[in-house]
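SAMPLE LOG
Freezer: B-3
Tube label: C17
Construct: single chain, 538 aa
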Amino acid sequence: MNSQMPNRSNVRLVNGTLPPSLHVSSNLNHNTGNSSASHSGSQSRDDSTIVGLHYKIGKKIGEGSFGVLFEGTNMINGLPVAIKFEPRKTEAPQLKDEYRTYKILAGTPGIPQAYYFGQEGLHNILVIDLLGPSLEDLFDWCGRRFSVKTVVQVAVQMVTLIEDLHAHDLIYRDIKPDNFLIGRPGQPDANKVHLIDFGMAKQYRDPKTKQHIPYREKKSLSGTARYMSINTHLGREQSRRDDMEAMGHVFFYFLRGQLPWQGLKAPNNKQKYEKIGEKKRLTNVYDLAQGLPIQFGRYLEIVRNLSFEETPDYEGYRMLLLSVLDDLGESADGQYDWMKLNGGRGWDLSINKKPNLHGYGHPNPPNEKSKRHRSKNHQYSSPDNHHHYSQQAQAQAQAQAQAQAQAQAQAQAQAQAQAQALAQQQQQLQQAQAQQQANRYQLEQSDSHYDEEREASKLDPTSYEAYQQQTQQKYAQQQQKQINQKSKQFVNTSPNGQTNKYPYNAQPTINQPDAKNATQDRNSKKSSKGFFSKLGCC
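STRUCTURE (predicted):
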């Protein structure tokens, strides 16, 4: 499969239609993920919509506040893909930046491959590998509690994924279970953890000089309130340490089933975020780890004490977490809780609870309401408050999309007609210029006599005829003069082989002396003869 397809011109829609839910933009979980964990109730496609030349859109498998996710198929090789749609007029488009990040991370283990980014009508489109369910989905299917062994094995993989991201000079800034997915069933990486959704990733240092970004305060919140670091709550610039701390909160979420700062009430979102941050600061790390292996508390304590530019000890963290299994007499054998579902057959969408279509992961407790918003440069998210558009709104959106497609087709036809007309005009202009070039000499010659001829045309016919004859004689004289000038350039050779300095049609001019000059010449010759006779030489 090609790693990159051409842009805009290669995106088309069969029958000029768009998926009916592409205009749904409810205030939902930002991560629409990339999972094959769809269900029979998902919308199916009957109009064979094609994007990016050869990607066929299938069932809808997710939607969020910034777009919709569809399962798709590469029509060339039949492999499944995930197709993300984002409204082009959204306040802060992010699919293009996400595509660039995928290209930067291309070939990194655990990072899906991005195949295409383009535009179609009102939407930006991103095509990437299709993966399995998210850790949030699996967490829900396993009764909202993971075993210590599963958490350790997952945590080690998460640390490695973030280490690879940091090695490419990027920080993630939105760590949460919804953004970590396992592979598709039957594949070698079926139970391997993958990282998706890089819409909020940011460079923390210059790729060439490795110069770290400066420390700043009073920054807008970026991330998901439940998992973000304490420094992020305080408005401090994020760096690698904040990704590591957010992962620690995810570990405790998996171990405990719920974090102490979930479900807090507040009159508005701002006060709620402040209460969540305050609760995090006041919760002792080892109280959080009570009844759990102490290594998890130690991990969170270490990463919270990192300085702004400090490089995390990724290998040390992995060894610390793996020591938990040693204490339990377990090993990292690749066995996970979700593999025990359905009598050991593993997760099965036909049996397990349907995944949440509005962001991969089951909805959070109903009493936890928050709102996710994204400014142009920053974003704050919360995995709650899911809303649905009515069927009427979806129908209206589809009608608008079809009208837009028709208008674009008409505009393209008009543009082609204008282009053809312009090409014809340019061809005619070139022909005229060529003709003008051919006649330029005659025009230049006639221009010098234009004023005289214009004055002569005012005379009576007899005088004008005389003027024309005079002009022709003048031209003839000029031409003869040019011929004479050219003839002087030749040098003739006389019959005796000596060079004749005079042209073949010209003779030297001999001045005839007058009588006075002739007498003087004779006298001069006589005196000269006498002079030379005296010398004896003549």
